[in-house]
Request: fold
Amino acid sequence: MIFFGIVSISGDTVVVGAPDAIVGPNSLQGAIYVFVKPPSGWGNMTQTAKLTASDGAVADELGKSVAISGNTVIAGAPLATVRGNPRMGAAYVFVKPANGWTNENEVAKLTHTYQQFNQYFGSSVAICGGTAVISASNSTSVFVKPPGGWASVTETADLNFGAGGLPAPVSISGDTVVVGDFLTDVGHHQAQGSARVFVRPKRGWGHIAKTADLTASDGRAGDLFGSALAISGNTIVIGSIDNPAGRNNLGPGAAYVFVKPATGWKNMTETAKLTAAGTKRGIRFGGAVALSGRNVVIGEQPFIYPKEPGAVYLYTEPPGGWKSTSKFDAQLTASDGTKKDYFGSSVAISGKTIVAGARSASVNGHRQQGAAYVFGR
Reply:
């Protein structure tokens, strides 16, 4: 079993994490696979390159999280032993060589100065240009590329924020970072969830307080708002996998869109709420989200109905702006999808190209190998 299917895309390059991949004699060391769009366009293909850690070990699970920005890939290995601390975790940076992607090891290994086991650093990663964001238990850290290029360094700044003792989902666009706190209480609602926005000060990243809290206007206990999120420019989309929670905290799920006010980010509720008509309880619509310009992509993470093959939904911002009445433009499915594939468990979008991961799909007779599907608009 590889469980291939944690996806990210930038331009014509797709990267896919396979945290359970065997590398040499090491089971579960993990790897990242790079796919570059051929001149003839996307088609069924195997990887252009395989990226691995030079010091990878058994059960590091490199590729548990992955992100790409331009020619730079960052991937988390949250179970890696660092400085003798089991499961402290690390993140690895890979840069495209001048002659194109090829099988290679990292150019830099990013770690946290706080040495303690079970930190799971690298559980979620994001990158935009020369700034990377990495989450661990009870903390989120910012790394800025040194003037000479990426090097093995520790954090530039801590945002001192986690998700109730668990690693938080993170995303970055420009100078704005958003972090999901899906277990936080809002008022009297336990685990309703929220998201925190941090904007880089003019003097640079430092130990800063949050700029704003984002919450759902109709939030309830157990919604897990903030369990998935993405930011692009002035728009943030946040998944709430158990909304409305109801009995046993197993709602069908929803996604919320927030648009930055003219005066800047502030404590606020959503601009619009997106749902998919007919979604069953426990499907967890909003378990994966992605955003590019005016386009939002939302995936499912089946819980009660794991036999569902899964689906991905595309929403495009209407001419008058986002509204809660916005309908999805397309429902994307796998042509060869089968039950328990978990298609849509990870999603990414860049321009007119959408990628969806199916982390448990069988490939050529290999059970639960996983696959990634590309859709062009």
